[in-house]
């Protein structure tokens, strides 16, 4: 999904629960089956003091993925604020993070249906939940995260699978090329300098 569409989608979702669902997909890269199983205490808050004395907020949780692989996922401060706001509005004691209108754990199908309903309401092309996982990968890849790190974050066993999830932007490709060429030119053999074309 392109960024303007994502911005329009998030800005248009008025349900705090549904906005958190979409935001968590984009912030964590979790599969819908993994997000569906989250409990309200799955995500742990961590406050650290950086070298300047400022508080630094981060979050993490553990999920059981495909082939019963346990992995850690991480949550950024902006998403944590939305998460905390959502929890403050919960008056029930159900451990499930997301509840349906029947006050039961929200199903995978219900999450898919809510996303489809918001897209329709906002006049956007139909978006599948899995596309949000691709958007997570694309965003991080274009932010220059290591492909090996991204592979582990997404719970893939193969780097090839991870590479199928993202597309590098022209800007990222350009930056990578010129940065590499600058290094090549600085380390080139002195014998190549001063060569004149015939």
Instruction: Tell me the overall shape.
Output: globular
The structural domain count equals: 1
Query: Could you give the order of strands across the largest sheet?
Result: 1-2-3
Number of helices, where a helix is a run of at least 4 consecutive DSSP H or I residues:
9
Termini, distance in Å?
50 Å
- Summing up helix and strand content along with how strands pair, one would put the structural category as mainly alpha
Quaternary structure:
single chain
Give the arrangement of secondary structure elements.
Layout: H1 3-12, H2 16-28, H3 32-36, E1 44-49, E2 55-64, E3 70-75, H4 77-88, H5 108-121, H6 129-142, H7 147-154, H8 159-163, H9 170-187
Antiparallel strand pairs: 1-2, 2-3
How is this structure best described in words?
- With 198 residues, the chain is mainly alpha-helical.
- It has one domain: hpI Integrase, Chain A, CATH 1.10.443.10.
- It has nine helices and three strands, in the order αααβββαααααα.
- A three-stranded antiparallel sheet has the order 1-2-3.
- Strand 2 and strand 3 form a beta hairpin.
- The protein is globular.
- The mean pLDDT is 90.
């Amino acid at each position: 999904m392109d960024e303007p569409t994502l911005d329009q989608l998030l800005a248009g979702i008025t349900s705090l629960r549904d906005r958190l669902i979409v935001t968590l997909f984009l912030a964590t890269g979790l599969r819908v089956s993994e997000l569906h199983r989250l409990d309200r205490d799955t995500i742990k808050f961590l406050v650290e003091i950086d070298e300047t004395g400022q508080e630094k907020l981060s979050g993490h949780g553990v999920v059981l993925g495909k082939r019963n692989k346990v992995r850690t996922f991480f949550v950024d401060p902006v998403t944590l604020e939305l998460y905390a706001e959502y929890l403050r509005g919960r008056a029930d004691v159900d451990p499930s993070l997301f509840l349906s209108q029947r006050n039961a754990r929200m199903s995978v199908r219900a999450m898919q249906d809510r996303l489809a309903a918001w897209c329709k309401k906002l006049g956007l092309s139909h978006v599948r939940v899995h596309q949000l996982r691709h958007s997570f990968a694309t965003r991080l890849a274009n932010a220059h995260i290591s492909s090996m790190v991204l592979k582990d974050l997404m719970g893939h066993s193969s780097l090839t699978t991870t590479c199928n999830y993202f597309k590098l932007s022209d800007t990222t490709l350009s930056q990578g090329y010129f940065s590499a060429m600058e290094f090549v030119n600085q380390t080139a053999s002195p014998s190549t300098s001063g060569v004149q074309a015939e």
